Amino acid sequence: MAKYEDISQDISDLTGGINDFFTADKIQDNQWAYGRNCYGFENSIKSRAGQKWLTIGSLSAAGQSVKGMGQIQSGANNYNFAAWDHQLFKLDGTTPQNVSAVRIKNNYNTSGGTGYLGFDFFPFSATKNAVICNGITTPIRWDGTSAGVVNLSGSAPATSDTFINFNRYGLLYDFDALTVYQSNLGDANAGYGSNTPFVIPTKVKGDIGSGFVQFGDELLITTRSSVQKFTTTGVSSSPFTRREITNNVGNISHRSMVTIDNGVLFTDITGIYLYDGTSIVRVSQPIQGTWDDINPEYMVNITATNYKPKSWAVFSVPYGSGQTTNNLILVYDYLNSVPSKGKFVWWMFDSIVAQSMGIFRNSNLVDEWWTGNTTQKLFLQDSGTSDAGAAFTQEVRSKAFDFNKPNRDKRLHECRFQLDASGNWNLTSLIDLDRNNSPTSSQTISLYAGGSLWATMIWGTDLWATLGNLMPRKKYSSTIRGRFIQFRFSLSTVDQFFRLYRYVPSISYKQLRGRDVFSS
After folding, report:
1. DSSP 342
2. What angle do CA 508, 30, 444 make, to 5 degrees?
3. Contact criterion met (CB below 8 Å) for 399 and 486
4. Where are the beta strands (DSSP E) in 116-178?
5. Strand pairing partners for 338?
6. Which residues contact 137 (CB under 8 A, 6 or more apart)?
7. d(CA 253, CA 211)
8. What's the whole-model pTM score?
9. Which among 154, 158, 224 is positioned nearest to 189, based on CA atoms?
10. Could you read off the pLDDT of 282-323 as tens digits, one per residue?
11. β-sheet bridge partners, residue 367
């Protein structure tokens, strides 16, 4: 005698991130086997916001690729700057959609060598200055307001790849020479020539430097094959003590080093790693399938930034064989990640070309995430619901659910979805069976709760448009059957979005004479 049993599963925590390291049936219930342009938010999943192109004038003579950008915060004023191939510009971003640019240095050659900005800020007298390096020409400094820049003094080295303000010392790092130069205490414009430079010992022939960053009271310095911790001594003849943390992994791009609340993230050829002050752990394992498809020849171009409003460490990478520009955004969600428990939450955004990134604080003291592409353009990210007026696809695919009943023929009868009543548009829901597409199971879910706009409303007839949550119920044909049942959600129309809080599928399975029966 056949016995039919029904089960339902409330899948309510959707913030597990993407996991392409295992097959879709092996990952956790709250993880996603595939995802683009969606992220976890308060036990839900939500479409990412779009980007706005920041229109810029007077850049006809500039190079193509945006090489770097930064902001000086001095008192109540913020001064922005960005570099194109061979020129440095002051940006006035008071009106975000129309950024004016004034050239403050021409022939700032970043088109060869390492070719990317390394910068930090230091108080010169009462004025805060940006010290800017490009690995090719003499380091310069800019006070945020002047029409030009001046070379860094103090017998600074002829070339440096990056600068940092560490414990009131100015430090310059020449990657090719594996040498760190130190200024006098409290004066980043003096002392480099008189203080003894520190040469980093290397165990790998041909190793080169790759960056440094401050984490708490520590200075983390990297080469392509090692990570080391430095402490300043205050003695000009022996400026540092050094402790090697590891020589098994290193950092490939100085622009990929980013400090977050509980550590420093950096990119090795094998993945993205976190140093927490004690040890180093690879945090990119859930997206290792994607990482393995990044073009290794252009990993040196990877750039990263800490977007604090969302608790994201954002990495822009060249995804795909032969890809020469950064075309995919990897987002490490450090709010929902728990490194001590091996939980690392990642999301992915495509349709964004970001050769450089920066965080600019606006007049409302809110951090904005800016990107620069390969055609002179700057973009304000996380803004609006379209990509500079173009549509982008928002899609996620769940794990392949076996519903804790292996080797049984399952039939999906219905599924209830809790969503935002976002607007008068539809979310597409698809079912994949046994890891194969099943386009006949496509369902549309209306994200509109009814009603009309005030201007067309008829009293006593029409209903107000309802905001908040809705929970539609979708029924499926009895032919929706198989061992593994997988859900896909997608939307790809301009100025539309969705937010999914939970879904509750109802499944029946068949049991015959106490044995499991499976029918494909």
Report:
1. T
2. 65
3. yes
4. 118-124, 127-133, 140-142, 150-151, 162-166, 169-174
5. 343
6. 108, 109, 159
7. 7
8. 0.92
9. 154
10. 999 999 999 999 999 999 999 999 999 999 999 999 999 999
11. 361
